[in-house]
Amino acid sequence: MNRTAFFFRASALAFALPGSAAFGGVDVSPLPPGVPDFSSGNMGWAAASFDFLPPVDGGPGPVQSDPKFPFCRNGQGCTVMPRMADPHSPILQPWAQAAVNKWNDDIQKGKQAFAAQSRCWPGGVPNMMTYTAEPTYFLQTPGEITIVYERGPNIRHVYMNVPHSQNPPPTWLGDSVGHYEGDTLVIDTIGLNDRTFVDNYRTPHTTRLHVVERYTIAPDRKSMRGSVTVDDPGAFTAKWGASQRLILHNVPISEAENVCAENNDNNYFHEDEIPIPQTNTPDF
Questions:
Q1: For the chain: N or C, fewer Cβ within 10 A?
Q2: How confident is the model at residue 83 (pLDDT cuts 50, 70, 90)?
Q3: Which domain holds residue 11?
Q4: pTM of the full predicted structure?
Q5: 3-state per-residue secondary structure call for the chain
Q6: Count of domains in the chain?
Q7: 104 pLDDT higher than 70
């Protein structure tokens, strides 16, 4: 059994056991009274849109599609190409605007645009909130929420009701702590490296990125509203917000493993895409 399958099965067993003791190092205590239940059982959450939606409060919003090159799909009567960001978005600092322009120029010249999902790289925070076809699972205990993403898989550990680590080193998924505000789960993340993008338009950021996510499950538990606040004085002119809707999908966690990089060639069609990550040494 590979390590991912073991994690899935051990987690399922741990969450099925009653009582207040720890099992195999996993806290299986019942949730305290008044704590909202974000566990989705044998189902996973997936975004309803590949794009972030504008914030509901009308404040500064995310980068959107370039109006001169609107994204469309086959059969919609337009040229199909990767998403191209609007370089004139008011939230972009000049260097970030130049980076977006460079991606747009490369796409118009026929180069492939980088997409973390298709190249087996971590999508980053908050971009992982826009995964549409790959479900996300919330494993919940009183002291921690573990978020498992299908691709890779990538696993986030959100430690509840504790402060951030002191000077966390930059990593792909950062240092995340959480708390509850009524029926809403709030996740605060710092310590992110600058090798990811904040959205599917390849909008860059720096290691000063600070992300706050908020999740609220609908009363029928079939959908969940997510919102995000993004602050990075190294890349953006202002703090901005966005929203997302996530839908519950009947994809058991035991079936969700996606070994993305296995047996993939990096450059079959000589498109010079960003290489799929490789490792030559074990990680254990």
A1: C
A2: confident
A3: 3-16+40-73+82-111+139-255
A4: 0.83
A5: CCHHHHHHHHHHHHHHCCCCCEECCEECCCCCCCCCCCCCCCCEEEECCCCCECCCCCCCCCCCECCCCCCCCCCCCCCCCCCCECCCCCCECHHHHHHHHHHHHHHHCCCCCCCHHHHCCCCCCCHHHHCCCCCEEEEECCCEEEEEECECCEEEEEEECCCCCCCCCCECCCEEEEEEECCEEEEEEECECCCCCCCCCCCCCCCCCEEEEEEEECCCCCEEEEEEEEECCCCECCCEEEEEEEEEECCCHHHCCECCCCCCCCCCCCCCCCCCCCCCCCCC
A6: 1
A7: yes
